[in-house]
Write a structure and sequence with these properties.
Alpha-D-Glucose-1,6-Bisphosphate, Chain A, domain 4; twelve-stranded antiparallel β-sheet; five-stranded antiparallel β-sheet; about 45% strand
Length: about 350
C-alpha cells in the first residue's frame, strides 16, 4: 500500500489569534513533529551530488535540510557549482503543514530574487521510504519535472525531465543520486569546498568544559598597530597578506558563528571551525580542530583566544591562548603539536610585520 499526501502550495499569513508562546525557549529540534510532516524526516541532514547534465555540464551540489520553529517547518538550502563556476546558494525552500486546510504547503526563493510555489506530491511506500515529485511550469511554457526517490538511508535517486514549450514529449536531463553526508565535518561537500555561514555552534563537539581546561599560551610583540594585526587575524584578505602561498588560503567570516577556516593544499585545514566572539582591534576567539593526521582528536573542537594590547610606538602585544584539550594520549599528541605550531604561526606574523 502506498500513502499519497497531496500537497497544494501557498504563501499565507496567519488570520487567527496568536498562540501563547512557551515560557522557556526550546532547543532547536532535530526532527519534525510526528504527523503529516513526519515522512520528510528522512531528508533531515546534509546531502551532496556530483553529477553531469545531459548536455555535458557538470553539477556539484549540496542540500542542507534543517528542522525549524519547534519542529513545524523543514528548511532547505541548495548550494551548487555549475561546471567551473563559483559555488553559490541557488535556492532556499520551506515546507510546513497547514492545519486549517489539512494540506502541505511549500514555497521556494531563488538566487535571482524570484519566489516560486513548489507544486509537488509526497508518497510513502511499504518500505517507509519517501518519494517526492515536483512539477514546475515556466513562464515561457516549458515544463520541468523532478523525482526524488529514496533508495536507502543514505542514497536518494534524482531524475529530472524537461518538456520544451509547445512540445508534448519529455526529455530526461538528469539521472543520478544524492548521497547523505556521513562525515563529522559539517562543511564537507561534493568537492570539499566549505559552505557559507554563519552556523549554530554545537557545544557537543568540544572536548573539554568547565574550569579545568588544558592550555597553551604564547606571547609576541609586533611592529604594527593593533588594527592591522586584528585585520590579519579576522579577515581572509588580511590573512592572505601574511600567510598566502599557492598551497594555502583562509575563509573568514567575521560574525558570531561565522566560518574561521585555514585551508592547506586547497582543501584540508580547520574546516568547520567558527568564530565564537570578538572585540574589534582587541580580541578574537574561535573554535579549532586537530590536523587531519590526528583523526580521533579532529572529531572534536578546542578553542583559541587571541588578545591584542596596543603598546607605544604603534606596537602590539599578541597573546594567544589555545585551550580545551581532552585528557588522553591522543590529546597529549595534539597539545604537543600545537605547542610548536603556534610558535611557527606567530613567528611568521612577527616576521611579516617586523619586515
Amino acid at each position: 500500500m502506498i500513502r499519497t499526501l497531496a500537497m497544494t502550495t501557498a504563501l499565507m499569513l496567519p488570520t487567527t489569534a496568536l498562540a501563547t508562546p512557551p515560557s522557556v525557549a526550546p532547543a532547536r529540534p532535530d526532527r519534525l513533529v510526528d504527523g503529516p510532516l513526519e515522512p520528510l524526516n528522512y531528508f533531515v541532514g546534509d546531502w551532496t551530488i556530483d553529477a553531469t547534465w545531459s548536455w555535458g555540464t557538470s553539477l556539484k551540489g549540496r542540500n542542507e535540510y534543517r528542522v525549524g520553529l519547534h519542529g513545524l517547518f523543514l528548511e532547505v538550502r541548495s548550494l551548487v557549482r555549475d561546471g567551473e563556476g563559483p559555488l553559490y546558494e541557488r535556492y532556499h525552500s520551506f515546507y510546513t503543514y497547514d492545519k486549517a486546510k489539512q494540506q502541505h504547503v511549500a514555497w521556494g526563493l531563488a538566487f535571482d530574487g524570484s519566489a516560486s510555489i513548489l507544486n509537488h506530491t509526497l508518497e510513502v511506500g511499504n518500505n517507509d521510504l519517501p518519494r517526492l515529485e515536483f512539477v514546475t511550469e515556466n513562464p515561457d511554457g516549458s515544463r520541468l519535472r523532478q523525482v526524488m526517490q529514496a533508495v536507502d538511508e543514505n542514497t536518494c535517486e534524482w531524475r529530472v525531465w524537461m518538456t520544451a514549450a509547445g512540445d508534448e514529449g519529455e526529455q530526461q536531463i538528469m539521472d543520478d543520486q544524492w548521497e547523505r553526508v556521513t562525515s563529522d565535518d559539517p562543511y564537507a561537500s561534493a568537492d570539499s569546498a566549505p559552505m557559507s555561514g554563519p552556523y549554530d555552534i554545537d557545544s557537543d563537539k568540544f572536548a573539554a568544559r568547565g574550569v579545568d581546561v588544558r592550555t597553551i599560551t604564547t606571547t609576541i610583540e609586533i611592529d604594527a598597530p593593533s588594527a592591522d594585526v586584528f585585520n590579519a587575524w579576522s579577515t581572509s584578505e588580511g590573512w592572505r597578506g601574511v600567510y598566502a602561498s599557492p598551497e594555502s588560503d583562509a575563509i573568514i567570516d567575521l560574525a558570531i558563528g561565522g566560518r574561521y577556516e585555514w585551508l592547506f593544499n586547497g582543501e584540508l585545514g580547520s574546516n568547520g571551525c567558527q568564530i565564537l566572539s570578538y572585540i574589534p582591534n582587541r580580541m578574537l576567539s574561535f573554535t579549532w580542530n586537530a590536523p587531519p593526521a590526528q583523526p580521533e582528536s579532529r572529531l572534536k573542537r578546542t578553542w583559541v583566544v587571541v588578545e591584542l594590547d596596543e603598546l607605544q610606538g604603534d606596537r602590539t602585544r599578541v597573546t594567544l591562548t589555545h585551550m580545551g584539550f581532552g585528557d588522553s594520549a591522543q590529546w597529549d599528541e595534539t597539545r604537543e603539536y600545537f605547542t610548536n605550531a603556534w610558535d611557527r604561526v606567530l613567528g611568521a606574523m612577527q616576521s611579516h610585520f617586523n619586515g
